[in-house]
User: Fold these one by one.
Assistant:
Number 1:
Amino acid sequence: MTSNHLTAPRSVALAAILAMMIPAVAFATDLPLPMPTKAPPAPIVAPPYNWSGFYVGGHLGYLWGRTHVDDDGVTAERNARTDGIIGGVMAGYNWQINRAVFGIEGDFGWTNARGVGAEPTDPGGGTGGSSAGDDGSGTPTTTLVPVITHAPNHYDVRWTSHLRGRIGYAFDNWLVFAAGGFAAADLNFREGAISIDFVPTPNNGGKYYGWSIGGGIEWAFTRNLFARVEYFYDDYGHKDYVGALGDRYRVSLTGQTVRAALGFKFDPLGR
């Protein structure tokens, strides 16, 4: 009897609690489900610049040339200045492996580099003057001695060209490189005018072939366009000529060039 009396109040209390919870549960089921949150998109990182591909462009700079002349084995002209503006075209190809860049490039440039040699210290024709003599009648005679006047030589560089290998190190869109290889030039050597006998002086032109070495830096400011500044030294070798009076000339040409270039790169692989 006592047990039934205790159970009844507990049942009533439990039923009351359940009755109070039912509206709360029903309200909770009516609430909208929380929207799933998306992670922010990852930032787009541009791939590092790749120097591989073909390129073409133009260059403009200044050539400090020096012409050396030996006359019958004796130095007649020691590094006469043969300077001028130079400009032209270039084309090449680069291969990039990690940060190393290997390439080959050819160029051609027209120039107005010209030079005039110094006055010869020994014209080679003796000295002028007269000598007194006697023709047998007691009347003194004068014998004239001819004087050969040899004007300075002239040097004109018409064009230069190179075929060089290149090796460099890339810092993304910056490239530091060294280059070296074959160099050629067209030099016109004109012997200074010789006044005696009115002999026309030879106008000798020729192709000079030698070597080149130098280096520079490039900057790619778009995926396809790049700018360059470089320096190189050329030794074009020498050629031999015969002058108007039979003198044997050996003419050598060297040069230092500083130039800027603008190029367009195109890569069939889209790098």
Number 2:
Amino acid sequence: MKKKALILIVLILAGLFVYYHIHSRQEKKDTGILTIYGNVDIREVNLSFRVPGLVKEMNLEEGNNTKKGQIIAYLDRNQYIDQLNESNAQVNAQKAQLDKLLAGTRNEEIAQAKALVQEREAALSNAEDIFNRNSKSYKSGIVSQQEYINSVKQKDEAQARLSYSREALIQALNGPRIQDIQAARASLKASQARSSSLQKTISYTTLSAPSNGTVLTRIKEPGTYVNAGESIYTLALNSPKWIQAYVDEIDLGKIHSGMKTQITSDSFPNKIYSGYIGFISPTAEFTPKSVETPELRSSLVYRLRIIVKDPQNQLRQGMPVTVGIKIGPNKDAKAAGKNR
């Protein structure tokens, strides 16, 4: 008797479960709302300087809100300013040298070169006269051998100086070589590029917020030396804000990207947030343990990313939410029914 009663109770419970399951699906079909569950997913970004240096100022504390473009930290830029000043001075010097080459030789310099040639021609003529006299006197035994040798050296030196001055005059008349001008231009461009790079480096000593957000972590403090890329803040971005949810295979065909949604949370039960489906995963995965639904879960689900509007910044990372998606009748199911 007890065994029959137990079997009867089991049958009644099974019938109630089937009724509830069918009734809930019928109710979902009648209302046209697909309800799924998920969690708020907020992007985080680690902020850092692009150049190394000593942290001079940090303007925000944990929990402070930021606006896009807001300056939130500075590095000490004095060392980079000194390098820029030195580079700019080098640019000015090389520019002056290039201008000098492009202007060519001045008339005054050409006149000086001609005068020097004339002076050294006279010096060579004088040295040759002395050499000729000493040469005859040396043969006659009037002058010593050393005096004769000295006159030879003086004549050779005068000849060398004259040759050098004549070449200098030719260069002055021809002006600077094309190769010298090209080399001066290349040096100037290299110095200008270095100055431009240093100007960018100085701009990198200022750190700005990339988007509206909230400071999660203040990692460094003023006075700390940081390397390029070393994080000093962790920022939670306010927009876009996502809901990560999952839909079972049965309901996958009822939704598509761009569908509008309504989101509610237990923290703000009277508040409805609008959103839309931004992404549907092309691959199935096993249901995460964090997903809780009032219905029996399928073994495989598809991940959704829902973009939600939260202008008052009320939703927080990991907060569980309920997502309602307004769906129409399943056209594929209707078509299949007609073909039967």
Number 3:
Amino acid sequence: MLAGLCLALLPAVTPPLSGDAGSPSAATLLPRAQAQQKLLRIGAIPDQNPEKLNRLYGQVASELSRQLGVKVQYVPVTDYAAAVSAFRTGSLDLVWFGGLTGVQARLQKPGAQVIAQRDIDAAFTSVFIANAASGLKPIQNQKQLTVLEGRRFTFGSESSTSGRLMPQWFLSQAGVQLKDFAGGAPGFSGSHDATIALVQSGTYDAGVVNEQVWKANLRSGKTDRKKVFVLWRTPGYPDYHWIGQPDLDKRFGAGFTAKLRGAILSWRPSNPQQKQILELFGAQQFTGAKASDYQRIEQVGRQVGKIR
């Protein structure tokens, strides 16, 4: 098991995308003190394929720019650890984190503000999936996760809440340890989309993914129900949320953090642009959230060695 926080060096970032409200700027590569003071740089853990992330956060950047009256630029990062590192160093001002990475980011940046979560994030779920040719059958309860012992199994990213942390905890509660999988260890696909593809292809007998991504793949037709199925659905747990830097009011003016929170909480399906954003997020709206909502995630993170 990997232990400790991912204290990576400042990650390389790629140029902003055509859908971003901000124009390309070398500021994304410079220390915060040298960056444009009125440029709000947003990022997100890369939990899905880049095409969808580019489309989603390009639209988020445009909408926030319109509502807040500042330039907003989406800055992609390479992996989950890079998102945490970029927030720690100040290269990103507002980041869409999972439960675990959000806790890691706040612990590394005292004063960081939990801005909002989706309506589905208070009780988020993962699904264990299996290849139809594996011989596995749907199970009825957590204790039956023992059917995965000796199987080729993959998580998503090593720092994913829904694709690793909470599923690993549910497995451990059933008595299944990482060494019990085929080869003495699980795989780590890097993202939910990749996990689904690998299980569907038969590279792995089973895996675990964010249920929202699973549903999206079913709707899009990328997932073949004849080749891969849901083995078991987890109980709910707190997950994704927006986190902002502690000095946003200082940089953008008094009350900016509250204005940012209000903008995100105001998004509704009745607005065409906001409807597209919410659909890509798999939600009806965003709701208020606070750091204490993620105490369980921090506790589990410490138990499995992802937080020290």
Number 4:
Amino acid sequence: MDTRFGRLQLVLIPLALLLLAAAGCGGSHQQPVLKVGGIPDQDASRLARRYQGFADYLSRQLGVQVQYVPSVDYAAVVTAFTQGGLQLAFFGGLTGVQARMQNPGAQAIAQRENDARFHSRFIVRAGLPISSLEDLKAQASTLTITFGSESSTSGHLMPRYFLSRAGINPDKDFKTLPNFSGSHDLTWQLVQSGSFDVGALNEDVWARAVREAKVDPTKVREFYTTPAYFDYHWLVRGDLDRVFGAGFSKRVQDTLLALNPQEHGQILELFSTGKFIETNNDNYRAIEEVARNLGMVR
């Protein structure tokens, strides 16, 4: 009896060790997590709702775990993407250029249908007699201005560009140096509160604030809309297919393009669009050129 028990132990112990080793090997080859994020261009609670629903959708369609990674500011999103902390990110035109410059294999794969013709809005305190950039130029020395984030395309880069075309130097011609609010929501709120006279922001955020009756028209109003330019887009890292398998970038693109109002209305509404369409890196060359001319990228 004792002999048989001893033999049983000799069989079971190696078997148990083999099973533990197999379990350990399985744990070291877990499926990678797709990390998703975007520039924090507006209210944090809205962004959390946007990306959590989007991450759930991606996870179901792609069959991988998807994690939303929030960021404190625009620069942090670029850094996270560059260092591999994000593999898929929703950038503005300028931050997308910055991210691609630091990750040369990165590809723009989709944009909202309105991003091919995006605009910035200039707003002003309601009591001021300003209805054009010419009026703004004439009165600039008595006024203060706030942009959004310093790295924002629609809240800084392109407004600065169109101001310069109108003969206005934001760093010299206003009463004080420009302010940077950090987000489009805060920009219009600062002008409405009287903290600043003039602001420049994303057309979608301004339109939604007006539509939802958050804007008080007796305190702040729009006075100028810029010409159109390319802006927001989805960017994937150049190593995405190596990490997740051949063709994965194309699957991500197809999943973005498949979003439709009938099935995914809430997700699309939070992205302020009716659908996503294809795009590519070439569409943002003009943004890069403007940024270089203004000394915002090298």
